[in-house]
């Protein structure tokens, strides 16, 4: 038995879906603990290509139970569409459960998300207009609607009526838009609740029972840690906590039960949308190599991702604040053709060398990366199945990343395809220690 929190350790798109899919073969439960359908996890194998937005990436294995935790905000229509698509691809979704405490993304959340972004003066935050932020606002303002409430037709109507009066005042009086219909929303969302009825459960009890039965549980984050609401590059962040500390809360588990925290890093850095990115590559030829070889386009809409060299300052900050026990490096093969590769090991901020991530966005935007250059391997790594087979220069690069991150690398991915992964240490190995905070357990 092991409980392992898997987090994205950069600005997202690190390959969490592939890694969780690989690990799910031996997992009993996979739990999404935060975010909404603004996530986009991709899994590729011989059976086809699958994209997950709300459903945990472990759903492809018939013996794995998947849970959407209480920390997730659920768009029920998007979830039903995703389940229908998976069923059309031959996937059994009867093993998916949704926490009855998970909050619901409502129609007024979509409207307010769009209107608030349009009303911003200056630089836009460029979030996905899926109602995620307003849903989290309502959760913390104690005006949210939870999955359990969709199942009681009268109580749902009474609460929705009260909330919608407030939301319609904002929509009509502040933004000058037409009011939303109570009857339409109530009828539509009560129907969604009935369609999802068999999936809504007391998932906290399910997971506590799983702990008592010594099951293996994976906790899957949705967005990268540099988008965390507290410790990310605020305000260019997501609306929930993406950190390992939130994995237990968002899943409904005791914090002490987490045996291991694993961070996923790309072998380089990418980012979608606005916000500081110190190691961004502005040489179009080099950036295009990474973008085309790495297929760096957003799953949702095909937008280009900004590409940069590995940011060791930001990476080490995330390793430290999450107490990473291990790191996984993905897309190492994308660097196969490069003669030299850069690693950012420090920043220069207005003439001063710093080794930490500034909190103020203007300071981070002013940071200039201080690079080390390492030799590229300029050979094809696809098909390599063991660490020893890697070119010497590739192993040297990984070793330097370990030193910069101060975290052991336990897995290396060489392709989006399932199985194209080198396992150096067993992430799901049975813990052999008595304490519940096994820092650097793989060393």
From TrEMBL:
PROSITE patterns attached to this UniProt entry: ADENYLOSUCCIN_SYN_1 (PS01266)
Major subcellular site: cytoplasm
GO molecular function annotation: adenylosuccinate synthase activity; GTP binding; magnesium ion binding
Region forming the signal peptide: none
Enzyme class per UniProt: ligase
Gene Ontology terms: cellular component: cytoplasm
Binding site for GTP: 12-18, 40-42, 305, 331-333, 413-415
CDD domains to which the protein is assigned, alphabetical: AdSS
Pathway(s) it belongs to: Purine metabolism; AMP biosynthesis via de novo pathway; AMP from IMP: step 1/2
EC numbers: 6.3.4.4
Catalysed conversion reaction: IMP + L-aspartate + GTP = N(6)-(1,2-dicarboxyethyl)-AMP + GDP + phosphate + 2 H(+)
Cofactor field: Mg(2+)
Family, as annotated: Belongs to the adenylosuccinate synthetase family.
Protein name: Adenylosuccinate synthetase
Source organism of this protein record: Dictyobacter aurantiacus
Phylogenetic lineage: Bacteria, Bacillati, Chloroflexota, Ktedonobacteria, Ktedonobacterales
């Amino acid at each position: 038995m092991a409980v392992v929190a898997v987090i994205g350790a950069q600005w997202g798109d690190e390959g969490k879906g592939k890694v969780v899919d690989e690990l799910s073969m031996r997992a009993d439960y996979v739990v999404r603990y935060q975010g909404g359908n603004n996530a986009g996890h991709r899994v590729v194998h011989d059976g086809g290509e699958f994209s997950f937005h709300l459903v945990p990436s472990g759903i492809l294995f018939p013996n794995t139970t998947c849970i959407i935790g209480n920390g997730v905000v659920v768009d029920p229509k998007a979830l039903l569409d995703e389940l229908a698509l998976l069923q059309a691809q031959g996937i059994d979704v009867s093993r998916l459960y949704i926490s009855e405490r998970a909050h619901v993304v409502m129609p007024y959340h979509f409207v307010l998300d769009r209107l608030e972004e349009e009303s911003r003066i200056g630089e836009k935050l460029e979030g996905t207009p899926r109602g995620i932020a307003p849903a989290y606002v309502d959760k913390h303002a104690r005006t949210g609607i939870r999955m359990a409430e969709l199942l009681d037709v009268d109580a749902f109507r009474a609460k929705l009526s009260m909330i919608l009066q407030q939301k319609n005042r904002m929509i009509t009086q502040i933004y000058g838009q037409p009011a939303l219909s109570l009857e339409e929303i109530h009828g539509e969302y009560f129907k969604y609740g009935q369609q999802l009825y068999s999936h809504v459960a007391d998932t906290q009890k399910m997971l506590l029972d799983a702990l008592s039965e010594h099951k293996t549980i994976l906790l899957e984050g949705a967005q990268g840690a540099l988008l965390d609401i507290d410790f990310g590059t605020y305000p260019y962040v997501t609306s929930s906590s993406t950190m390992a500390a939130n994995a237990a809360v968002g899943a409904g588990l005791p914090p002490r039960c987490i045996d291991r925290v694993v961070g996923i890093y790309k072998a380089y850095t990418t980012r979608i949308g606005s916000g500081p990115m110190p190691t961004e590559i502005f040489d179009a030829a080099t950036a295009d190599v990474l973008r085309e070889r790495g297929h760096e386009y957003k799953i949702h809409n095909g937008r280009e991702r900004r590409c940069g060299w590995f940011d060791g300052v930001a990476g080490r900050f995330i390793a430290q604040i999450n107490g990473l026990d291990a790191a996984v490096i993905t897309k190492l093969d994308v660097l196969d053709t490069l003669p030299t590769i850069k690693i950012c090991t420090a920043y220069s901020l207005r003439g001063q060398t710093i080794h930490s991530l500034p909190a103020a966005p203007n300071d981070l935007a002013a940071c200039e990366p201080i690079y080390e250059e390492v030799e590229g391997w300029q050979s094809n790594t696809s098909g390599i199945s063991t660490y020893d087979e890697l070119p010497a220069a590739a192993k040297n690069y990984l070793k330097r990343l370990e030193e910069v991150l101060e975290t052991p690398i336990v897995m290396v991915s060489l392709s989006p395809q399932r199985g194209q992964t080198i396992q150096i240490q067993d992430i799901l190995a049975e813990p052999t220690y008595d304490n519940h905070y096994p820092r650097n357990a793989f060393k």
